[in-house]
Amino acid sequence: IGRNVYYFDSLSSTNNKAKEMALKEKEGTIIIAEEQTKGRGRLGRNWVSPKGKGIWMSIILKPDMIPSEVAKLTLIGAAAINRGLEAMGINSYIKWPNDILIEDKKVCGILTEMSCELNMINYVIMGIGINVNLDKEDFNRELKDKATSLKLVTGKKIDRKRLIGNILNHLENLYIPFKERGDISKTIRISREKSILIGREIRVITGDKELIGKALSIDDEGQLVVEFKDGRVEKVFSGEVSIRGL
Ligand code: BTN
């Protein structure tokens, strides 16, 4: 991963560019942009991506597997980012399935998109957005309470290149055993150890329903196990989760 890197000054969205390039490019190819003019978040939200201040990148993956396995790739990405930050002396938490938080605020999100055909994956685009050196002014009113940057929490400017290197090393280490043997045990261990949800009251939004419960654990397949108010224990495969009171 990361042997082929395409670097752009400005793109609408690195995920969009990666999609255009995915069929002709090799697995592990990376698209990075200094700024995104139409950065995309999950659920059609936009992603603030100011010039030179963050890591806005997409990784092209071509795992030989069925679409339902893709959710696990997001967990692999989150675990790799957590470990990459740790290598820089920065402690973070994973908000299953795709956010990285520090001091209860979001510093990173992952947007995983795929193209598939006949129940097989053509390619997966793992889009990673990390708020590295953003300043207070870069966050609008709505984001101020919910999001932060590595610079704001550590008090110093962070070397983006070093961080990318660290993340890609960990990503490769976690991805290869999964691709080759379906082994995600190491990722699951990290997801549990660094989970910000386990033991907390959460709100789960799946489809049109919103339920309140307590996150109990993450199972071996990466699903979130939740105990709902009525006592039912269920596994949530994917969806939007928020921590109550935050
Ligand atoms: C989220 O938390 O909603 C996911 C945010 C993902 C943002 C990254 S930045 C690089 C890549 N390109 C995009 O347009 N989005 C992802």
Main traits of this protein?
246 residues; alpha+beta; BirA Bifunctional Protein, domain 2; SH3 type barrels; seven-stranded mixed beta sheet; five-stranded antiparallel beta sheet; 6 helices; binds biotin; ATP binding; biotin--[biotin carboxyl-carrier protein] ligase activity; EC 6.3.4.15; transcription
Describe the fold and architecture:
The chain is of the alpha+beta class. The protein has two domains: 5-193, Bira Bifunctional Protein, Domain 2 (BirA Bifunctional Protein, domain 2, 2-Layer Sandwich), CATH 3.30.930; 201-243, SH3 type barrels (Roll), CATH 2.30.30. Helix content is 26%, strand content 34%. It contains six helices and twelve strands. Strands 1-2-3-7-6-5-4 form a seven-stranded mixed sheet, sandwiched between helices. A five-stranded antiparallel sheet has the order 11-10-9-8-12. Helix 2 runs antiparallel to helix 5. The protein is globular and about 50 Å long. The protein binds biotin. Biotin (BTN) is lined by residues 13-15, 36, 39-42, 45, 47, 56-58, 98-99, 109-111, 127-129.
